[in-house]
Amino acid sequence: MYSLLVPSFCAINKLSSALFQGGNYIFEFDSFADRDICREFVAAAIAFHGETGKSTSEKPAAALQDEQLSTAEMEHRIKLLQEDNELQRLHKQFVIGGILTEAEFWATRKKLLDQNDRRKPKQRVALKNEMWSVKPLSDGQSNRVTFNLTPEIIHQIFAEKPAVRQAYLKFVPNKMSEKEFWTKYSRAEYLHSTKNVVAAAAEAAEDEELAVFLKQDDMLTNEARRKIRRVDPTLDMEADVGDDYMHLPDHGLLREESKDVLDSQYEPYRRYFSQDLNQHAAVVLQGRVVDVELGDTRSVAEALARTKQAELANEVSDGNLEKDLSHRISRVAEIEDLQGPRDLAVAPLCIKDPRDYFDSQQANALKPLGDAGSGVKTLKFNVSSVEAYGSLRELISEIRVTGLSEPITDPEVAFKVLSGLTQNISSTKYHLGKSPHESILDSLPKVTKEDLLHHWTSIQELLKHFWSSYPITTKYLYTKVTRLKDAMSQVYPKLQEIKESVQSDFRHQVSLLVQPMLQALDAAFAHYDADVQKRSAKSGERPNGFM
Amino acid sequence: MYLHQVPTNFFDIFPDDVSLLMVLIDTNPFFWNSINTSLSFSKFISNVLAFLNSILLLNQLNQVVVIATGYNSCDYIFDSSALQNHNQKGESLLQKLEEFVDKDESLCRDDSVDGPGFSLLSGSLSMALCYIQKVFRSGPLHPRPRILCLHGSPDGPGQYVAIMNAIFSAQRSMVPIDSCIIGAQHSAFLQQASYITSGIYLKPQLLDGLFQYLTTVFATDLHSRSFLQLPKPVGVDFRAACFCHKNTIDMGYICSVCLSIFCKHHKKCSTCGSVFGQAQTQDSSTPDRKRKTSVDN
């Protein structure tokens, strides 16, 4: 499936830049999913290329390239839409309705899309740690020894032995076939396993290609030398429990090196176990460097060769490394006593008096309660504390003397109060529900409530895209804003409809609810109009403007 | 919506209508001196005394505690559960009140004060809550507490944080704070307090009939409130005000560091000093949207 999609995307990318100057094209697809995806792109590409000049042709191509949707992602999106009704409604309204593109719709919902990806296991399979994976199976009867080489093993061989890799690239398929190559390699391995260095030297002298496998790997030694030069001298080499040399000589591995002194001519054919072990360990710890399918040996070899070359190039070009290293050394191994005082640049903390803030909040909160003035007037004059306290004391003693008055309240006043309270309570009860936390929405019929809430979320979505498109710098944003504006202007009559569909006693509440939505839309339109005006004023100055 | 929504079956847990009423009376002398109405302090106190008596009559186990909110200090001036001669309640309250006023005067450092001044509401709220906590820990059977603030002085902005802390702690302990405003202007703090703790906020229109208001609305115990209709405010306006002009705004600019709100573009935040990024060279930069609905959902 994936391979089917990839050519289509490549095709469209190639098409997009050269193509849309005319002509009709017919695309054939294997499945509806493919067709839908391609339809999106083609529609988008047509929209872009219909009006742009050359300057913006890169952007749509880039945008198309970003849209590499695999079927898995498409399925994931469909699943998300199925799970969330609200999201589906919005999607249907905007994307299918042509107001927003698919990309724009999902651009703000990256979190949702990412969530699923995390469920897939992100573990990568590492290289095997077996060193002697190429074990010959010897047939007890005949003299034949068989080696089984799987692509995995081949990958490991190429990773650990760069000489073999290089030989492969050089010899196959020019000098010998792959089978011959591996036969020779296996022969070399067999010779090594017999630990007969002399025999190895003899055979190497005869067969040039075999010699490559039998000799020590020059590339490896070069690499090792390079690495040594780059070792960080501040590395802490303190021995720990794993470096136990006392109780387990050679870490429990058999000593393989023979103690006989050989002629110098045989030296190159000697294999050192410790070298092999170190190289193997280094490769395994590095992990999978290339991510190529293991079927094709040649491509694996090439890919590995490429990465090695890239590494080498990086090292060479990175001349700063030595400087950085010396800097780091001086930093890490510094002697504290000899360091000067260090000034940490910190911005001074400046927090305003919170009282200023709360003053404003108070004025704000009191506004809806309406003006005071229920017969209580405040006289602002300067009172001395003595006087104030004195009068208070007087009043208290007055009560003590006179006691409670009889009746405590004038009955007419009491009656007025009672009826006033009753009226207040009964009027607010039907309008606002029983508790201040109950909302009007709950008292509306369900359809109306859902409609209102849906309008609210869709207005938010529209406004989100609208405001994020400013300031308008490209044609694409301009068309997007126009699209959004048209969609927004269609909301007004819908809201009006809702208002009229509600019963008359709720109408006021509903209009209160709807008001902030209308305000938000009005603000957006005001901004749009102002922007258009400014543009038309400026277009005299900039004849080569984006429009 | 607030953090601890009162569970719907709360009122089924304690079917009793025994209540512990903490009354916080405003004894700020500058406030009482500055108002010029039918309600003098003496009339106020007599209304309150009658009200306290009626509370104690409603149920034998009812308790009343009165805390005076002064200008410089706060103190308990009456506790009905303290053993004393039952006929002398009013006397002892007034006596203690006088002593409190004397003490408050002695603590006074200002020679004169402009206008009504601020009373220490945060202090008395805290004292009330401490007393309530003590009652909670006294045993499994205790009356249900609530707080009634008879407040008239304007809100002291310096006490905002302390009052909000008290409000949240009352909310946590499920203690409603009722507010009866006897002053000239509404109190934003108490409005919030009553809203958050699901108490009642009322500013009486006719202060002559204060007693009637008190007995109709504020004498209701918590159990009865589940089926009684009580006056409710229209709703709290949570919209913010801009820091530069103190105007309420619906859309504005927000500093991403300290969240201060401005109604127009500034180069630098005046609260935290962080420099705002350059506006786009073209016409208008995108203002951040900030919306709050005035009807709570």
Automatic annotation (TrEMBL), chain A:
One of its GO terms (cellular component) is transcription factor TFIIH core complex. Residues 56-117, 141-193 form the BSD domain. One of its GO terms (biological process) is nucleotide-excision repair. This is Probable RNA polymerase II transcription factor B subunit 1-1 isoform X1. It comes from Olea europaea subsp. europaea.
TrEMBL record, chain B:
GO terms for cellular component: transcription factor TFIIH core complex; transcription factor TFIIH holo complex. Transmembrane segments: none annotated. Keywords: DNA damage, DNA repair, Metal-binding, Nucleus, Transcription, Transcription regulation, Zinc, Zinc-finger. GO terms for molecular function: zinc ion binding. The keyword DNA damage applies. It comes from the Eukaryota. Pfam families: Tfb4. Residues 277-297 are annotated as: Disordered. Gene3D superfamilies: von Willebrand factor, type A domain. InterPro entries: TFIIH_Tfb4/GTF2H3, vWFA_dom_sf. It is found in: Nucleus. GO terms for biological process: nucleotide-excision repair; regulation of DNA-templated transcription. Component of the 7-subunit TFIIH core complex composed of XPB, XPD, TFB1/GTF2H1, GTF2H2/P44, TFB4/GTF2H3, TFB2/GTF2H4 and TFB5/GTF2H5, which is active in NER. The core complex associates with the 3-subunit CDK-activating kinase (CAK) module composed of CYCH1/cyclin H1, CDKD and MAT1/At4g30820 to form the 10-subunit holoenzyme (holo-TFIIH) active in transcription. Belongs to the TFB4 family. Component of the general transcription and DNA repair factor IIH (TFIIH) core complex, which is involved in general and transcription-coupled nucleotide excision repair (NER) of damaged DNA and, when complexed to CAK, in RNA transcription by RNA polymerase II. In NER, TFIIH acts by opening DNA around the lesion to allow the excision of the damaged oligonucleotide and its replacement by a new DNA fragment. In transcription, TFIIH has an essential role in transcription initiation. This is General transcription and DNA repair factor IIH subunit TFB4. It comes from Olea europaea subsp. europaea.
